[in-house]
Write a structure and sequence with these properties.
The structure is a homotetramer of 338-residue chains.
Chain A: E1 2-5, H1 11-23, E2 30-34, E3 37-41, H2 47-54, E4 59-63, E5 83-85, E6 88-90, E7 96-100, H3 107-120, E8 124-126, H4 144-157, E9 160-164, H5 171-177, E10 180-183, H6 191-197, E11 204-207, H7 214-226, E12 232-236, H8 254-261, E13 266-268, H9 270-274, H10 280-289, E14 294-298, H11 316-332
Parallel strand pairs in A: 7-8, 7-14, 8-9, 9-10, 10-11, 11-12, 12-13, 13-14
Antiparallel strand pairs in A: 1-3, 1-4, 2-3, 5-6
Helix pairs in contact in A: 3-4, 6-7, 10-11
């Protein structure tokens, strides 16, 4: 429930109102000025409180929103959200590129990729240290050592780090090494976790659940936003459908659809989106043409030896060629690819 | 079953072989020279015949293909199929544009669209006269009058006609008016119908079934090819998934995937692919970037009054802008959009 | 568009009304007394006509129904439709069993099955003569010879014949041999074909499209009903989902859902529903428990040698055991399995 | 990686082997006697270790299992797993019933349901205290107070408690009140969480992810089993498909399929499976007929006022009738419903 107070409310009236909530035993989650609106966010629909508040002269509007996202909507905030990460802006017009291996595997591997990215002018490196794997017997990542390695490589080559977080207990650890915390597809509706991420002071890259409708995805973002973290970046990474010709079905139309419904920036991930490196370059170009605010892609010095996602990782040479094509398509639609 | 005879076979040896089939009571469907290979296509896997043929010295190879397409594969024919329609080539490098209303509704409507297309340099007009509708009470098309109108408009403005055929009994009628016969998504596995279309001397535009895997789609094409019609154009038009945010999920990765698996040209239909005109322009651009051999799109003089598919039809002004964007994206990837 | 005339209308007033339609150039498809309602069914939504009729004092109600089924709904006809096939009633309470091979393959095969069915007291035999196969190189059925064989076996053992029809051109041929004409999953939205079947004087078994929502399925039934054939039997046969563990996902909840929405009888097909004979017996029992009006199942004298669908065909012994279990479950819910 | 040591290995040889692992810096996760096999479970595929072990004479077999479940398979353990919960056995033949409201809402509500269940002879009560909700503004559950209430009601009426756990940080809290810890559909692939649950001394009810294939579900179970908790109960609760006629598609064929692939007991949840109370009773009966080891169902004293899942909750009277029908169907297949 979101309660919007009247614009004209004096500080005194506001205090009286806040006091009155105590009598109702109503604890609001967050008080915030959104443009000219002062809003109070309650974490659950307490109908008794809503009833009591509905007659309060200080209250302008109550949004129950039980089945809808509010803070994530473009109706709520018409201007686009821009997220600044050490001087690089996501959502401001330029198309950012984020590249790197699925998993951090060794110092040699991650430094080799970091060097290539730096030479090309790419500003973000990705790589997993904690890997959510379908089988308990698959490689689960290097853990903290992986975080240390990707951070060293990023520092050496002036890159920003994107890495996955898989449990709330890791928030401090991952935040020490990463510039953007990535939430994977299988955690998109892990609501307890999302609430913790709403209290973190780092941007969250929220991948779409492979089974999530667009409204469910935006409500997952709403969980983070409603706890106070406004820096949410969405990422389309393919959905699960009947067609097993490819690993996932890349729902590229989600890019313009999110731009219509929400103010949040959205990236495209053609690597998971297709699961097949022979399809990634064309879909990388198509992602730019569809209007994505960024492209996140897997590249590995030697995909055939990758410990995870080898089939969808680009060879360095493929990446260079795709990146150059993305720049040309960006120009064709008036956007700079960085 | 496809039987390939030895290259070195003399005409005499070939005749003897053909005669021997009579003793086996084996009727082949088609005999054809594919490059240097002389092949015989049998419509069903008669195991007894296969056994008898397997020892025949004239036979080089027997492909059972029970679960695979053969004639549609790039393994069978490495060079890309090019289809010439009154001087415009599909599959030869240029990206063709096919535009027009969902249904032909009136002389004024179809001539107005034809005029606009002609002025822009578009070479194909589309429009349905027989409409497959989910409800029996929805508008079912103008029938032969619709065919007459679209043909008149096309002739007046030097355009080629693409229109849908929904039953074998209409083959002669539709062929009289159309340059390309379109098979809709719901008929993609109407095998009896596909066989009839395999005997027609017109190119067939085979839309992907909304529920069809890539291999099933190529096997549907195989039905047409195996009856002798080699001019099949595929068209990705969105698949049905759990996500109801849009009408269909536009599976754009099917474009590079088909180019990898098959020699047949493939178009993209962002109108049905999304079902929402606000998403069509970006997906039109993305279709070109993904490497489509053409884009087929719905445009209507007044979408709000369209008798079918109004929500996904572009306004003429939107179409002009998208077409111009498609040309720029085409240049960025080295292809001319016509 | 369905126009319902006032109950009180005299024959004279009715004639005047019908005459008036000529002035509007409005041809109705069918005139029929439904209970006390006299209705006129028009095949398309001609808005001009609707407008003219809306003020006509003889008209009680106009249903546009562009997105809904009408004649197939339980709102339209609260009592359940019962279909009598040579003395066996479908939809009247008893649960009918229809069994037999996927394809008719030989005289020996079909007579062997017919004998077993007859001994058990089963009243219907199934078997395909014209097979819609994904690949053009798979066995396509014995054609008319298959029809002849199944009819002979049925006549010899006093069974009723259910067989598939795949094109309108076969209506006369199939009707000569079959008691129920089956429309396969891939033809469920072949609307031209459905209209032809609406003019046939045989019950139609309409299998659910593997991609069809419940409302689309009922609208497919509506195509047949609106042309005058009221004997439609629905059949749930599994839908296509992301899960490839089984051939199809058997949507058994469709049974009570159809009973809620429609008056038409509905069968369950656990063979196609699962695609795996080891799962068929339990799902056959579950079909009865869920309230199906009948169960259609594949059984073959030697499934390992079947020319089609071997993996999902029961061994005769398995069928006997399942049939006996179905009878016990039927008793538990107060229905007789025949 | 699972390493099986030779049966004939002496205690001494075993000790030498275990010591040798230290030199390889290989830490095994768990050592366990499975029947006659002594196995060592390693949490990840360390290829170097596998290589070293492959020549060790004490090793009989190494299972890499990167893409397969092992401990959950019926190949690994042919006899069925039976889980005893305060004297009631799940998986031993009887069909258990678990019923109660979606959320614990008040003392009155939960005691009223507990009383009814007790009078009928039902042994398990369900009810959520921590609710994973799609929207952050929906009712999120009563938390610890809810746990306290359901435990009191269960104690008063001699019932066992099943309730959902949504984060590892709650393990101690929930374990204090619950007899079975339920993992919801959206957490089925929250692997970090699953590992923690593998160390818990309580049975885990693992609901199927709405997007999970059968093999992925069994691999999720494998995460728990491989950490040492062998008491995993699976629960089919519907999957997400294209069909929006119902909330989920109830994949009842998963019941016999799991029984074929695994030794773990499996329940059916017709409430989430359909999302519509008018379909639940028939699907409850069908669940028993399909061979489920138990049925879990939502029932509420006044569904129209439920704070969550009202549409799929049964009225008490409906539940009574369904329960009695389930007993009759159970008898028909030779199983007792408790």
């Amino acid at each position: 429930m979101i309660v919007t107070l009247r614009n004209s409310l004096s500080a005194h009236a506001e205090n009286i109102f806040i006091e009155s909530l105590k009598h109702l035993q109503a604890q609001y989650l967050r008080k915030k000025l959104y443009g000219k609106d002062l809003i109070l966010i309650f974490n659950s629909d307490t109908q008794a409180i809503a009833k009591a508040l509905s007659d309060n002269p200080s209250v302008e509007r109550i949004d129950y929103s039980g089945k809808q996202y509010r803070l994530a909507s473009s109706a709520w905030k018409p201007e686009r959200t821009v997220i600044d990460i050490k001087g690089v802006k996501i959502g401001a017009g330029d198309v950012v590129t984020i590249a790197g291996p699925c998993s951090v595997e060794s110092e040699e591997q991650i430094f080799s990729i970091a060097k290539m990215l730096s030479e090309l002018g790419v500003q973000f490196i990705r790589g997993g240290a904690y890997k959510p794997r379908t089988s308990p017997y698959s490689f689960q990542g290097l853990g903290r050592e992986g975080l240390r390695l990707i951070k060293s490589a990023a520092d050496a080559y002036n890159l920003r780090v994107v890495t996955e977080i898989i449990d709330s207990s890791m928030i401090d650890e991952i935040s020490e090494y990463a510039d953007i915390l990535q939430v994977g597809s299988r955690n998109m509706q892990n609501f307890f976790f999302l609430k913790q991420l709403g209290k973190v002071n780092k941007p969250i890259l929220l991948k779409r659940g492979m089974y999530a409708r667009i409204d469910e995805w935006l409500m997952a973002a709403e969980y983070i936003l409603s706890e106070g973290n406004e820096e949410v970046i969405l990422c389309e990474r393919g959905i699960r459908t009947f067609d097993t010709s490819v690993r996932n079905t890349f729902d590229l139309a989600a890019i313009p659809l999110i731009h219509k419904l929400s103010h949040l920036p959205i990236l495209a991930d053609p690597s998971h989106g297709t699961g097949d490196r022979s399809l990634v370059p064309q879909m990388g170009l198509a992602s730019v043409a569809a209007g994505a605010d960024g492209v996140i892609v897997e590249v590995h010095p030697d995909p055939s030896r990758a410990l995870s996602d080898g089939a969808q990782s680009l060879y360095p040479e493929q990446f260079r060629e795709m990146y150059s094509g993305m720049k040309r398509v960006g120009e064709a639609i008036g956007r700079k690819v960085v």
